[in-house]
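Form 7-S
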Amino acid sequence: MKTILHKSTERGFVNHGWLKSFHSFSFGTFQDKDKMNFGALRVLNDDTVAAGMGFGTHPHNNMEIVSIPTFGDLEHKDSTGRHEIIRQNDVQIMSAGSGISHSEFNHNKDKAVEFFQIWIFPKEKNIAPRYEQKTFSPNNRINDWQFVVSPTHQDAIWINQDAYFALTTLEKGNSISYNLQNKQHGVYVFVIDGEVVIDNQTLAKRDALGLWELEQLQLTAQSQAQILLIEIPMEFSI
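Output:
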């Protein structure tokens, strides 16, 4: 098994006033040759957008873009005419495919919105742009894995890649194992909150650990912890 540790304090950071964003991988003005990607995982941004503010219309292509709000409501509009509100416990995916433009704004005028935006290199290029979002009950991830993005799991939203996103809320003292869908894949474990131990490595809030050349891993919660796990192909074509 091979591992790479990404401490929360080593992430890139930008403060535009209306936007505060931490970057796990090279993005914008934060460039680190050792943090370009983890397999097909290209971006994991931890964003806080001030009340009423947001990202104006901008284009994307050939990227799978997943948004996961953790607080507040995110308003989405795109060039297909779609207009949606993405709320806490929702997960959204946008397959940019052959090309799409969209905007993202804080829907609320009185509080910030906090969300993760994650970019995955696609399996197939230039597909027709597509959009999907779904609400997931947090009760269904207590001490268990809840798959929210997957090319195969029926209850998850579909992604144009052999990638799997799973969430868990692990109670203090509990352990949980994860069996890889494909032993050629790697996993990127991101601690949303709390503290966990993986392979004798303690991870605190917003720390992440990438692991590959393994078939299973086990996590043990040192406190109540919320975890995002992304299983991803380590080899892919761009």
